[in-house]
Amino acid sequence: MTPTIDLRDRIGQINRLADHLPHDVVALAARIFPAVVFWQSARTKVDGLTIKDSTYFLFEQVYALPLIPPAIAAQLATVAEHLLPVLLVLGLFARVGALGLLGMTAVIQIFVFPEAWVTHGLWATALLVVLAQGPGRVSLDHLLGLDHSGTRHKRLP
Asked: Residue 129: inside a domain, yes or no?
């Protein structure tokens, strides 16, 4: 047996093993990990139910988004960073949540921290998995019959 054929066989074995990974597991991870990032960011913006003065300052002085007044941007971002991650984790309107966080990721990448493209690319990749493939069967969307994406993919054992 030549080394090329042996390598090809090994790659084939790895690929066959990966074929058994259920979409539901991938979708759950793709929902949870970016949700945690945005949730943690949201929690730094508030004190109880009040948006911190430092949040408004950041949107006025550091983030400086075009077209949206800083105070409105701060409020929208704070609400979105609290609501959309919850939707993602629950898998309720998960594609909407993923789309919203993907939009926020794009804004952060383009206007706020363009040098952090690797991090934003990882967030975007996970969110694109949910957007394109759905939340999977471990979701309220599936339970409520709102998204049947899990039925097209490999089932949990």
From this structure: yes
